[in-house]
Amino acid sequence: MCLCCRVKDIQSVYIDTTFFDPKYHQIPSREACLTGISQLVQDWICQSPYHGVWLNCKADYGYEYLFTNLEQAHRAWICSKKCLKFCHMTTDRTTQIHACRHPKDEEFFRAKRIPCGSTAPDGVPLNIISIKPSTISFGERTRKTSVIVKGANLCDWSLCLVQLQTH
């Protein structure tokens, strides 16, 4: 490994074997996951300016591919206080797509608010869909299923568990 023209000895290597289990044999491609998420986002935000998407991402890294492609496909920046080093992210809370995080994310979601505090300017309640990208859920399935697993619609809010391959 070269670091500033010096060779550095590698002391240890970590190999992530999380998905080296036969139960993960049905992981769809990154492109298939993106297509499913993008279609879900499009179907939701085209309904009205009061329809927002919250990408409930639990990590700071690994979603760059998703964020970049969603921004390009929907011509909408993604609101986030973190990851502002990416050109497709913004702190503008008026955008319809959010990946912002808050210690009590679920509490905000139930109150029809996005964790950054975004609300409709005229007080009309937002219709928010929460999309939770997850690779782990692939291993929980015994057969091949859709990339998107829709949860119950409760009081005008929806939760979708979305298969996302980040590697």
Q: What's this model, at a glance?
A:
This protein is an alpha/beta fold and 167 residues long. Helices cover 20% and strands 19% of the residues. It contains 3 helices and 9 strands.
Tell me the quaternary state: single chain
Describe the biggest sheet? Answer: 7 strands, mixed
Overall mean pLDDT? 69
**CATH secondary-structure class:** Alpha Beta
What overall geometry do the principal axes of the alpha carbons give?
globular
What is the number of independent domains?
1
- Based on secondary structure, the structural category is alpha/beta
Total of DSSP H or I helical runs spanning 4+ residues: 3
Beta-strand percentage? 15-25%
CATH T-level topology: Rossmann fold
Q: State the share of residues found in helices, binned by percent.
A: 10-25%
**SSE order in H/E notation?**
EEHEHEEEHEEE
Distance between the termini: 22 Å
- List the strand order in the largest sheet: 5-4-6-3-7-9-8
Descriptive notes:
Helix content is 20%, strand content 19%. It has 167 residues and is of the alpha/beta class. The chain has a single domain (30-163), classed as Rossmann fold, CATH 3.40.50. The strands form two sheets. Strands 5-4-6-3-7-9-8 form a seven-stranded mixed beta sheet. The chain has a two-stranded antiparallel sheet with strand order 1-2. Strand 8 and strand 9 (158-163) form a beta hairpin. Keywords: Endonuclease, Exonuclease, Hydrolase, Nuclease. Residues 87-149 form the DNA repair metallo-beta-lactamase domain. It comes from Cyprinus carpio carpio.
